[in-house]
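Worked problem 6 (solution included).
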Amino acid sequence: MGIVCVIYALLYAFFAFLVARWNRGILPVAAALSMILAIFCAVGADSWFARDKPGFDEALLPSSLVGLLVVILGLLQLVLIAACFYAFNQEWHVEEERPIGSGEDYGAGASPSDTPPLPA
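Solution. The predicted structure is:
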């Protein structure tokens, strides 16, 4: 299971890099993987709180602390899903159309004589 944790960490770092570069396609993928991890957290959190019975060895960290960390991780995944949905509503996937013609003359620094005339 340790390799899965490393893969998730590397994927989230890669997703953060792509979001920082305003890549529009990674948000649904990040939300989907967050949902999978949130389901794992929801299923596994209860078992960490139930390990205080006889017959279970104590881990390096107390079981109740690991259970609390799993619950917090699950909540963070839900926040990440909500943030992905909110960011996807920001129209990152819509590109701005510009008229064909003067490439560098079009924009805020263009003089009115350089801009193409509007159709009547």
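Discussion: The chain has one domain: 2-88.
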